[in-house]
Design brief:
Elements lengths: L2 E3 L2 H9 L7 E8 L13 H9 L10 E4 L9 E4 L5 H4 E10 L1 H12 L10 E9 L4 E8 L5 H11 L22 H24 L4 H16 L21 E9 H11 L3 H19 L9 E8 L13 E8 L6 H17 L2 H10 L6 H11 L7 E6 L7 E2 L2 E9 L8 E8 L2 E9 L6 H21 L1
Parallel strand pairs: 5-6, 9-11, 11-14
Antiparallel strand pairs: 1-4, 2-7, 2-13, 3-4, 6-7, 8-15, 9-10, 12-13, 14-15
Helix pairs in contact: 1-12, 7-11, 8-9, 8-13, 9-10, 9-13
Length: 466
């Protein structure tokens, strides 16, 4: 069989996509420049493409495109792209030298506002020359149907190196398998549906799952109940106004050592400190917008990886979620961290991520038409105010073509009524915050940038004062 089927969760990101809401994850990376240029000063684009092409056998879906099932009778499938061309996916552009940070951000915003072409594999790498300091930029776009945050980091470590000496893999020859005909795919899909329903029925009748199954249902019900704690509907703020087609992006760097100092002295986890800092930054933003109240608590949708160790380099989405209250109205940074610590400890104790995973698993049994309807509902959801995702990255330098990666700011997409996405990647001693906002709703993104920097500085000062 020359294809593999998208999971219901992966397919949901295709249904969520529209002109206003491209569903790619991405990153803005800055690298050293010199190794990318040959003796005559020309960018070594052919060498970069050869390097990427030599490693694609490690991530086969990067040579596959999406094929829909006739009549939308089942989830789409990944099939080999028989016209695959690495030159389409690995591109070169330039800024007028010396291009500054603002120009690089503007280019990133423009590229990320554009949809990926579904007739091709759903990823692009844009190298950018002409940056000040002789640096090279790298703009990554990968559809969320293809990767989640953790698998995105896995992919990056395949395309990049842990040493300054690049190595071209001796890749096996690649011959695309023919895609199934629409009729064949429809018949296979109907047969898969019957087999899946029969297996589900057998599981329900299995005597071995009697007491254990009841215990699991009770456990899931207990964890699902946490989704309604503190009120089902999130407070309405300017963060939930509808988005348009344009974007703004900013990057903030915070010392990982300073965050670990806060954790060691004030308690909690690194993620607790991160969320407390985000809450502090958002509090300053909402104060500037005259929306802050002392009792205001926002709800952040925080994806949680459920990927096993043996699923390294397995693409697709293996995530659950937690809905974490952010006490943005609390002015004391230490108290703010205490509230976040207590909230996340409670959610972990009640296993909220288990309940969310159980709900997300139901997408496997939803028809595409129901997923499409669900996507429209999600775009109008009232349950959370923003997405905040924190992905651990390598703490040793990465290289591309021998050029060291200096900074890497991740990006998470927006939905129609959440106009802010906060993505965090730890790399080489720093937390890199990527802030994506709708352009019309975020003329003041600099206020949030400054607020985040100040919130983490307050937490570090409180820790060092103790």
């Amino acid at each position: 069989m020359g294809y593999d089927r998208l999971s219901g969760l992966d397919a949901s990101f295709l249904h969520l996509e529209s002109l206003e809401t491209p569903m790619q994850v991405g990153a803005l990376t800055v690298l050293e420049g010199e190794p990318f240029f040959g003796p005559e000063g020309h960018f070594r684009l052919a060498d970069v493409r050869d390097l990427v092409a030599s490693r694609l056998h490690r991530i086969p879906r990067f040579r596959k495109r999406v094929q829909r099932v006739a009549l939308d009778a089942g989830q789409p499938v990944w099939v080999d792209d028989d016209h695959f061309d690495v030159a389409y996916h690995v591109r070169l552009t330039a800024l007028p030298a010396p291009g500054d940070r603002a120009q690089l951000l503007a280019l990133f915003e423009r590229l990320q506002a554009q949809l990926l072409d579904r007739r091709r594999p759903l990823w692009e790498l844009w190298f950018v020359e002409g940056l000040e300091g002789g640096h090279v930029g790298l703009i990554q776009k990968t559809h969320h149907a293809l990767v989640d945050g953790v698998s995105g980091v896995d992919v990056a470590t395949v395309l990049l190196d842990f040493s300054p000496t690049p190595v071209l893999d001796e890749a096996p020859p690649w011959r695309p398998e023919p895609a199934p005909s629409p009729g064949r795919l429809l018949l296979d899909t109907l047969a898969d549906d019957v087999t899946g329903l029969a297996a589900l029925a057998r599981r329900g009748r299995d005597p071995e799952t009697g007491e254990g199954g009841a215990d699991r249902v009770t456990r899931i019900a207990r964890s699902v109940a946490t989704l309604t704690e503190g009120g089902v509907v999130a407070p309405r703020t300017s963060l939930n106004r509808p988005v348009g087609r344009s974007r703004r992006f900013a990057g903030v760097r915070v010392s990982l050592d300073e965050v670990k100092t806060v954790r060691r002295v004030l308690g909690g986890t690194v993620n607790d400190v991160v969320l407390a800092g985000v809450a502090g930054g958002l509090g300053q933003l909402l104060a500037a917008r005259d929306e802050l109240r002392p009792e205001l608590t926002l709800k952040a949708f925080c994806p949680v990886s459920v990927r096993d160790e043996d699923e390294h380099l397995a693409l697709g989405n293996r995530v659950s979620a937690m809905f974490v209250p952010l006490p943005v109205g609390e002015p004391d940074p230490v108290r703010r961290l205490e509230l976040v610590r207590a909230a996340t400890a409670h959610l972990k104790d009640r296993e909220q991520a288990v309940g969310a995973a159980a709900l997300l698993s139901l997408t496997e049994y939803a028809a595409p038409t129901l997923l499409s309807l669900g996507a429209r509902l999600i775009h109008n959801q009232p349950f959370c105010n923003l997405v905040c995702t924190n992905v651990p990255g390598p703490q040793t330098p990465l290289y591309c073509m021998g050029a060291r990666m200096l900074e890497a700011y991740p990006m998470v997409p927006l939905s129609k009524n959440m106009n802010l996405g906060v993505a965090i990647l730890s790399y080489c001693g720093y937390l890199h915050f990527g802030l994506l906002g709708d352009r019309e709703q975020w003329p003041d993104l600099e206020v949030l940038e400054a607020g985040l920097e100040e919130a983490f500085a307050e937490l570090h000062k409180a820790a060092t004062d103790r």
